[in-house]
Amino acid sequence: MVNLDVLDDDQRAAATAPRGPVAIIAGAGTGKTRTITYRIAHLIDQGFATTNSVLALTYTSRAAGEMRDRLASMNIAGVQAMTFHAAARRQLRYFWPQIAGDVKWKLLDSAFPVVARAARSVTNTPSKDTIRDLLNEIEWAKSSLLGADGYAAYVDSIDRTPPLPAEQVAEVYRRYEQLKTSDEGMHLDFSDLLLHVAGAMENAPAVAEEFRQRYRTFVVDEYQDVTPLQQRVLEGWLGDRDDLTVVGDVNQTIYSFTGATPQYLLDFSRHFPNAHVVKLQRDYRSTPQVTTLANQVIGAAKGRIAGTRLELQGMREPGPEPIFHEFESDPAEAREIAGQILTLLDQGVPAKEIAVLYRINAQSAVLEQALADAGIAYQVRGGTSFFENRVIVDAMQQLIRANLQNDLPPDPVAIARAALAPLGYSTQEPDGAQERERWQLLRALVDLVEDIVQLRNTDSLEVVLGELRRRAADKQPPAVDSVTLVTLHAAKGLEWDAVFLAGLTEGLLPFRYAIDAGDEQIEEERRLFYVGITRARKHLALSWAPARQEGGRASRKRTRFLDGLVAQSTSEEPSAARVRKTKKCRVCREALTTPGEKVVGRHAECESPGNEDLFGQLRGWRARVAREEQVPAYIIFSDATLQAISEALPTTVDELYAISGIGQKKAELFGQDLLDIVRQYA
User: Fold this and answer.
1) How confident is the model at residue 428 (pLDDT cuts 50, 70, 90)?
2) Local structure of 660: helix, strand or coil
3) For the structural domain made of 318-383+478-578, what CATH number should be given?
4) From CA 329, how far away is CA 554, in angstroms rounded?
5) In this structure, how many other beta carbons lie within 10 angstroms of the beta carbon of residue 559?
6) What is the pTM of this model?
7) So what's the architecture of 4-89+194-276 in CATH?
8) Residue 54 and residue 19: Cα distance in Å, rounded?
9) Which secondary-structure segment (H or E) carries 472?
10) Confidence grade of residue 655 (pLDDT, cut at 50, 70, 90)
């Protein structure tokens, strides 16, 4: 017997809803995975379904695995939980002889080379980024049920900006499809898996009947993100039946660029007039302070989607209010975020429970540097770190080759711009998504070169390259217990105790492309912001910077999505960064910049008055404690904090509190040990 008492009233209503069409409208943190797992278990427990007749469709393989694990923990095994593509691939392998006879097929490992061949036959020497954009455009077209013949007219009708003229894209698409078929058989891409399954369901009655006898109950997670192609497959699987449960939240629709549409969730009750609809609004993830802000942000949304928004109810104990900060520049913002992370680590928040979210990958560079300077381990989720990115690796090689030339002008920034132009750097942002991403990375590198020139007061490209190499070498490798850097899109479905939303300026959020595209895309950017906010369980900090670099022109505006929530800063109302007292080195009295320097109270190059033997003893003690606690050493105390102890020689708990990096919790845990060690050298 499944114990439904662990569910709240709304979750229980969803889990026990009558067999048939059910829509569960589930807000962020409301326990949707838990609910649909119990619904599956309840249907099986009551005899309405069998384990091998249920097909649960999820957006990611990770979500499918989580569902299978939860069902297994309830002693329910055999339920098929997988993505649309995984389910289609399995079925196609089984049914293929019935629909295609002896024709062989093989799944493409990568469609890129085939698209490249097609593109080269249509346009002269397309770049790798253009080819990637064409591949994404073809995938979007197929997901939207557009063939090559109808592509151009449809794109023109919706005012979509393709990577090449629409007729050229259509021809590349046409030739791509032709190239996949040869005398040896057919090559299928992932969209083809779905197209062939849909065709089999529609045109092969025997195949459709056999499948429908096998699977009779369907559960679809993240239903707001299905594409027209996925919906067509689902309708083929269902036939004239209605034993379907869908789960989603249209106000978390953020993948329209892949062809996803919330229309099917919005129209669910129209398609199934007898549908049972349940709303989940109790948020068990976030504190009331976080949910209040989330409700305020999505409350300003416009359009049909906005009319279905949920009012989240924070069910956790109250927590701290979200923090809003305006900093003078991106580097200042990154350093302060690093400093706040050090404070959270000191308070006992695990590094793996801290995340920094941003709009585009190019924003990670300055954040990575600040975290590395602070000695904070981090991982870049969903991609490689900035200096390991292939675009940046190629760009660095280009700068090295440029440095070998004679008679270089004394302007590393100008050299970098000229050297990186063949790789895609320009003064104008390109249209194609892949080209934009490359351009953003290259621009970030040029910006970094400019920052180094100003910081080091140098006109030597050799010096700049040395600093770039140092920054790349000093970066810490990904660790299990590390701070996560991730884009807002890649953060969907994840959660952390503490979340920092960085770079909240117009042109980034909403993204410049969305601003140009109009209201519908701006509303999707608002939903993306909402998704970011709802990733936080307890601590939430939101920040922005008017200037890109230190001392630069403050030309950027804070995101419009904070209008009415945060007072607008003006030149008469200094930002949080400007009113904060600058910390100075106690040796040379110059300004301190990095979080590590601020902890110690001096520059790294300024002579330390500390006891090196004591510092060694403290590090040895930290290593032993870290082994016992099975955590990275920096979680106990950073090197900077230990160095500060060796210099201050505290003799009381109050004197420990005066050292940056030591709060009440750590003083209670480790204070006596520290004082005992220091006493030996006092």
Assistant:
1) confident
2) coil
3) 3.40.50.300
4) 8
5) 23
6) 0.72
7) 3-Layer(aba) Sandwich (3.40)
8) 13
9) helix 461-474
10) confident
